[in-house]
Amino acid sequence: MSRVLDALTRHAAATPAAIALSDADRTWTYAELAEAVDETAGQLEGLSPHFRAGAPVAIVLDNSPAWVVLDLALVRLGWPSLPIPAFFTPAQRSHVLADAGAGLLIAPGEDDASIEAAGARLGVALLATAPTDLPEGTAKITYTSGSTGQPKGVCLSQDQMEAVAASLVEVIGADYAGKHLPLLPLSILLENVAGLYTTLLAGGRYHVLPAADLGLDNPFRPDLAKLAATIAGEKATSLILVPELLRALLMVMSFAGARFPDLSLVAVGGAKVSPKLLDQAAALGLPVYEGYGLSECASVVALNTPGAHRAGAVGKPLPHLDVTLSADGEILVGPRPFLGYAGGMVNEGVVATGDIGGQDADGFLSIAGRRGATIITAYGRNIAPEWVESELLAQPEIRQAIVFGEAQPELGALIVPLMPDLDAATLARAVERANANLPAYARVARWQVRPPLDPEAGELTGNGRPRRAAILANHRPFIEATEQETQP
């Protein structure tokens, strides 16, 4: 039985007036949410004669109460769900549907059939995909794109996901379960598991708004004023952010004076966070706690918490996991954090993350960088590009940065300035300040300005991680140039 569904019943009995779910127009108590889940599950069950048993149900919806109810209804039925981010290209969507062997596609509007979830009418399209082998016990398939190739479908059991959520409640404490405002898409596993499931287990309120209401119609170019006003106006007590969104909030706090007095927990993960960015958050009174995870571990592996945090670390591993280091420092996570991949191998044990890190005597985990992304210069120096990039991103003039230098005598960088018309001299001073914090062998010697990284061109993953191979391939002449350049 699902721990999250059990929690609905438990909280409904203990605190019948407690609000579990809300949007701008309506609230659902825990009992009302459980009833809505059962109603939607019944409608879905009525469709079962029309599609292949065991085929995943794909969901393409904006953040909404309907997304929440539909997700929990699929948990109730024990049917595999396939959340698809709205920003996936048509080609990516087609690949995902075929690769997972989806049987239904649920999206806004009318289609072959329709159902109702949390008061919203949703279209249901019957799909004629070929069956795909899924590991036994698959409850959710989340597609994660690496630096090369087509996205891979990570298969997770409900128990694996809920173990993460339960561990987060244990290490953070249920007292922090207030009003959680999701800023990331629910189709991203981090928000689904660490946001939704954790909030419901702890008895909190999940207050979900569409991206447009948050100023996040384009999550890669947020409307900062609208975002800040919504967080403050809705009195959110917790958020989950990727580093770029943290930078955005700190920017509006620094330059516009925005403040968020109700926030008590801001978790940030998805990529390396500059220590200076965390220092800036602390100075501005933003309670930010860095974490670390990956889809193959059901989203979260380690997290700093209000009761246990350490500068330079991503926190202690969650209690249900066994985290060790290989002889060369690669982070290994067990005992079995995911089931395997759609149509591919079954995972039977420990996951080799590809991340290089360390663990101190108190158990705090630190990340040095990606094994696959490590740069080896012509002088034989090994450099994690995330390290250099974090120093560049700590400069307020720099919005995005990608560092390269494999087999080259010095490092180079592709830089997206904060403002498109930022002059070269100002940007050069920003690079110089970043270099001052780095040893000589890890300094950026040449750089080139480029437009913001483009998710539609395959340059970013769903949670904002840069896809290095795709980005560097678009700048091959500059990267391979032998002359030294310090101007864009």
Q: Please, could you describe this protein's structure?
A:
This protein has helices at 3-14, 30-47, 65-77, 90-100, 158-172, 189-202, 211-214, 224-233, 243-256, 275-283, 385-393, 424-436, 468-473, 476-480; strands at 19-22, 27-29, 57-59, 81-83, 104-108, 113-117, 120-126, 140-144, 152-156, 179-180, 205-207, 238-241, 265-268, 288-292, 302-303, 316-317, 322-325, 330-334, 340-341, 351-359, 365-370, 375-376, 382-383, 398-404, 411-417, 444-449. It is 31% helix and 23% strand. The chain has 14 helices and 26 strands. The protein has two domains: 1-371, Rossmann fold (3-Layer(aba) Sandwich), CATH 3.40.50.12780; 375-480, 2-Layer Sandwich (GMP Synthetase, Chain A, domain 3), CATH 3.30.300. By secondary structure, it is an alpha/beta fold. The strands form seven sheets. It has a five-stranded mixed beta sheet with strand order 4-3-5-7-6, with helices on one face. A five-stranded mixed beta sheet has the order 12-13-14-15-16, with helices on both faces. A four-stranded mixed beta sheet has the order 2-1-11-10.
